[in-house]
Amino acid sequence: MVPYGYKAAALMFYSLVAFIAASKDDKGKVSEVQETERHPRESQLNLREVVFVIQSQRNSFHAQRAQRLQADLLLQAEALQESLPAILLLHTLSENEGDWSILPLLPYLSSHFGKNSSWVLFLEEETNVNLGKLHNILKKFERRNEWFLGKSLHDDESTIIHHYAFAENPSAFKYPDFSAGWALSMPLVNRLSNKVQEQPLKSDFTIDLKHEVALYIWDEGKGPRLTAVPELCALPEHSPQAQRCATTVNTHSPLCGEPVKKEAIFVAVKTCKKFHTERVPVVKKTWEKQAAHLEYYSDHADPSIPTVDLGVPNTDRGHCGKTFAILKRYVSGAVPKTDWLLIVDDDTLISLPRLQALLSCYDPTEPVFLGERYGYGLGQGGYSYITGGGGMVFSREAVLRLLSSGCKCYSNDAPDDMVLGMCFNSLRLSVTHSPLFHQARPDDYARDFLAHQTPISFHKHWNIDPIAVFHKLRQVVPEIF
Ligand SMILES: *[C@@H]1O[C@H](CO)[C@@H](O)[C@H](O)[C@H]1NC(C)=O
């Protein structure tokens, strides 16, 4: 959750940016690549000149997935009888928490590879790569120019997660679907690296990284737009349309054995008196039945729901006091002892069966803090946090470590999710990101982006039918093309 004052300010700021953008460049298309530009003379490009960066995470499950992708790329390079390229796991490069937001990492990439390499290719854990095809595609671009390549996404409507940017023409701005892989040519990496070092990164919040990176690179027209490359695909690997693709996406939701039992998850729903009749009935009609252990926490005891009054007054801004009271109750013996704790808002829509499947991949004896990751002040040594509306998942171990650290709310109405992020950051425990949790409504995300995932949660009832959104989360077979 983001403080309201910030939201209002951001809205004004970004509408202004969008206005300037719209008036400066009203064509607003992805730069169309001239054939001549794309095929200079096919240049010699040694695969060694491509630096692969896997956007990996510290959590053991994610680190293993990234290592598997790394090993696969090395095998492919050997089979092509190419000398081996550098394949970096992002989480191992430094201790800097902000690295996952990419821009703070550019000086490192520039200083290590800026003189001896031609491309940096970024991959996610779930990206599949056909190295031979990828090599052939990169060869076609004149490497002395600045290139920003990817599979393009756009917004159909202006959306809160992009601060309502380009409100006049939301689909004009294209940004890359990171799952399909995306690339920067080295001249662009080197220039951006200088820029990052000369002017500290201004943006406070990191919310949708792929959009923010594209905005930074485009720089109101001073930098390149995304060039859409049809061979970078977000299709499932074995889809018939994927034959031309150099990259594809592993669209299966992670499942690592049996889903965890529903009895292994304790669910805490945060509500308050004014939403007992408005929002709680939606939870009751939809996903409450999927939970084995669930309590509603409010500022008012209402036996008809029932709610538990935690003795913390309701606050309009953040719920830090309430959330810490929930954490203490969770370990107190007042509720069943479970491996996992899920804290949600009363307007979160979530699929617990899908969460049970996902949690089979995590070890509850590790301190796991999982959900949709946002960042605060990452350019200047800030911290990451799990944004509350999409659901925050804690292993019991994570809760125990947090409480025994003595980390506290600085006020009852502090934003709970951000304080938790600060606390975990000071314990040097990384939050774990899953793109399957969503802080906003389905309409707030690009359709093509949602098409290749099986979402676990959405948030907010505003202007939508929450029951219909929940029914989407119940489909057993995800809608993949
Ligand atoms: C470029 O230099 C880095 C070390 O700074 C090295 O790891 C990498 O292998 C070099 N790449 C090439 C293509 O020589």
Structural class: alpha/beta
Total number of beta strands: 23
Shape: elongated
Count of helical regions: 14
Write the layout of secondary structure elements.
Layout: H1 4-24, H2 35-38, E1 50-54, H3 60-79, E2 87-89, H4 106-113, E3 119-123, E4 127-129, H5 131-139, E5 148-150, E6 152-153, E7 175-176, E8 182-185, H6 186-198, E9 205-206, H7 209-218, E10 227-228, E11 232-236, E12 247-249, E13 265-270, H8 280-285, E14 293-298, E15 307-309, H9 320-330, E16 340-345, E17 348-350, H10 352-359, E18 369-371, E19 373-376, E20 383-386, E21 392-395, H11 396-405, H12 416-426, E22 432-433, H13 447-451, E23 457-459, H14 466-474
Parallel strand pairs: 1-2, 1-3, 5-10, 11-12, 13-14, 13-16, 14-15, 18-22
Antiparallel strand pairs: 3-8, 4-12, 5-8, 6-7, 9-19, 16-21, 17-23, 18-21, 19-20
Helix pairs in contact: 4-6
The structure holds 2-acetamido-2-deoxy-beta-D-glucopyranose.
2-acetamido-2-deoxy-beta-D-glucopyranose (NAG) binds next to helix 4.
Subcellular location: Endomembrane system; Membrane
Protein name: Fringe-like glycosyltransferase domain-containing protein
Signal peptide: 1-22
Question: Could you give a short description of this structure?
Answer:
GO terms for molecular function: glycosyltransferase activity. The chain is an alpha/beta fold and 481 residues long.
Write structural notes for this entry.
- The protein has 481 residues and is α/β, with parallel strands linked by helices.
- The protein has 14 helices and 23 strands.
- The chain has helices spanning 4-24, 35-38, 60-79, 106-113, 131-139, 186-198, 209-218, 280-285, 320-330, 352-359, 396-405, 416-426, 447-451, 466-474, and strands spanning 50-54, 87-89, 119-123, 127-129, 148-150, 152-153, 175-176, 182-185, 205-206, 227-228, 232-236, 247-249, 265-270, 293-298, 307-309, 340-345, 348-350, 369-371, 373-376, 383-386, 392-395, 432-433, 457-459.
- It has a 7-stranded mixed sheet. Strands 2-1-3-8-5-10 form a 6-stranded mixed sheet.
- α4 packs across α6.
- It starts with a helix and ends in a 7-residue tail after the last helix.
- Bound molecules: 2-acetamido-2-deoxy-beta-D-glucopyranose.
